[in-house]
């Protein structure tokens, strides 16, 4: 995901803008791994292989996202790891 996309992305659930960006792996303004967080509804959206996964809850892959949280629990803030919607560790 190009960092400049943060200026146009909004939460698909409540349309809140701006979202908080947490970078895990980045190279030349391209985020390959990270997370977006909506402070209004406390939802997180993973960025996996440069793609922000911003789907409604019913279309999200719980197994993939729990694995993402487990893999990056040391690099993401507590509010995403233990309190975020729709699931957390």
TrEMBL record:
It comes from the Archaea. Pfam families: Trm112p. InterPro entries: Trm112-like. This is Trm112p-like protein. It comes from Marine Group I thaumarchaeote SCGC RSA3.
């Amino acid at each position: 995901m190009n960092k400049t996309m943060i200026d146009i992305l909004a939460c698909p659930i409540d349309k809140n803008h701006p979202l908080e960006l947490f970078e895990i792996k980045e190279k030349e303004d391209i985020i390959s791994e990270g997370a977006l967080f909506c402070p209004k509804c406390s939802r997180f959206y993973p960025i996996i292989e440069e793609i922000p996964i911003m789907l409604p809850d019913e279309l999200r892959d719980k197994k993939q996202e729990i694995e993402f949280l487990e893999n990056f629990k040391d690099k993401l803030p507590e509010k995403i790891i233990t309190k975020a919607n729709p699931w957390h560790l």
